[in-house]
TrEMBL record:
Belongs to the aldehyde dehydrogenase family. The active site is at E266. Residues 33-489 form the Aldehyde dehydrogenase domain. The keyword Oxidoreductase applies. This is Aldehyde dehydrogenase. InterPro entries: Ald_DH/histidinol_DH, Ald_DH_C, Ald_DH_CS_GLU, Ald_DH_N, Aldehyde_DH_dom. Keywords: Oxidoreductase. PANTHER family: ALDEHYDE DEHYDROGENASE-RELATED (PTHR11699). One of its GO terms (molecular function) is oxidoreductase activity, acting on the aldehyde or oxo group of donors, NAD or NADP as acceptor. SUPFAM superfamilies: ALDH-like.
Amino acid sequence: MVTTSESKAALNLPREAIRTPMYIDGKHYATAEHEFFTRRSPGHGVPVTATARGSRKDLDLAVSAARRAFDDGRWSRISGEERATVLLEAARLIRANCETLAWFETLESGKPIAQSRGEINAAAGIWEYAAGLARVVHGDTHDTLGPDVLGLVMRQPVGVVGIVTPWNFPFFILSERLPFALAAGCTVVVKPAELTSTTTLKLAALLTEAGLPDGVVNVVTGLGSVVGQALAEHMDVDMISFTGSTPVGRAVMTAAGANMKKVGLELGGKNPQIVFADADLDDAADAIAFGISFNAGQCCVSGSRLIVHRSVEGELVERVCALLEKVRVGEPLDASNHVGAIVEARQFEKIRGFIEAGKRDGVQLVRGGRASSEGERFFIEPTVFRGVDPRSTLAQEEIFGPVLAVSTFDSFDEAIALANGVPYGLAASIWTRDLQRAMKSMREVQAGRVWINCTITGGPELPIGGFKQSGIGRETGRHGVDEYTELKSAHVQLGNRTRWIG
Ligand code: NAP
Ligand code: MG
């Protein structure tokens, strides 16, 4: 890692692409044969980093290292206290290297530097929280099974875990999974998104510095269709934790069937902002503007559908649009910008396609819609479509960009039916001052995560994950560590068995 003094220059662009090899068995790893993929900053259009295109063979090496590290107990059998010490030191090192990590995160993802700094620091907080959980993992006893039997329920680490992450929150999403797997005693092979691999590689080196034994965390970079697919199929991997799109999640689930590995999936969303007529409209407008602009809308819990009571729709849309006028989109290394770049050309074209289709179909565009890809720098203005048919593409499909689809409702039941009328169920926000209405909506809405009079907020204490096609399993919170364990129950005979044959 660069030192604090080196990182003073951090807000400059690198002179050439900074190369980082893979990380296997406690060491950087690359051979002369490895091709390197050069990443261009989507906010600047210039080469900034390069990471190795790993192969199936590299993945096998990493899985073997993780397998050895798990089976010999160097991590899986040490005390929770010892694991917690390493995780806390990791958190300290993450904070100490925040500036460098944030710089790489912004260069590769295009997100504003102030946001990257916030995400790295918040991620350190998750490592601290998970350190505590390393000492909390425990089982259960049943002393009610009769005079001669004691029942024990043990929680054991699931084994070797594969973690596949997306490009939208590379370091943060990894930190919602990895420290929990480690707290449970698992060993891990990570496959980050190729576009944004550097901070994951830097983290692996920091973990060694923090005292993590070799082979416990390994990183294989490269293409999802090669390395990710091989990880999901691998016969020696016991669990796969995948975060990304719903179609790839489906493929991962199929691949995992090869050896019946445990599967955790965090997938897409089309998250409603439900606004009742009695809501604080100023508060709601600010959150709606944030919810659609944050990370340029490339956020799985983005509030991309506004479902608003007909009587306040005009007023609310006006306020949202007025706020969006003040949102600054541009240069990600300028700390005063709110919204940075779209991650790459393909994603940029996909979002633009949705906007153009909306316009073609005659949907009312009330704000934004402009996109620029000059000099291979990709920016899209926060965009609002009004009067969107809830069955249409704009209201049904995950756009993963700063595009808001506004629909109206007349009754409570209609609001809930619209909110639930998509294949996803990741998150929902509810805006009302009426406690009963808030509680009732919270109970009815199909989402793993509900925000009442707020949006996209929280900490590691609460579990996250999706209903319906948004995923399987939960991350973070107490459940976040349970996810990486297997239950084992034991019947202990305390007296004589009743004999089968006299
Ligand atoms: P993606 O295309 O599904 O990719 C996610 C990861 O999977 C990347 O590392 C990718 O590798 C890898 N991958 C691709 N094909 C694979 C395969 N056959 N087997 C195993 N891994 C494979 O998603 P994305 O475009 O990166 O991210 C956007 C999507 O992620 C959105 O739909 C969003 O909703 C979802 N997301 C969900 C959450 C959540 O918590 N629910 C969080 C963030 C994002 P490469 O890209 O390097 O080839
Ligand atoms: Mg992809």
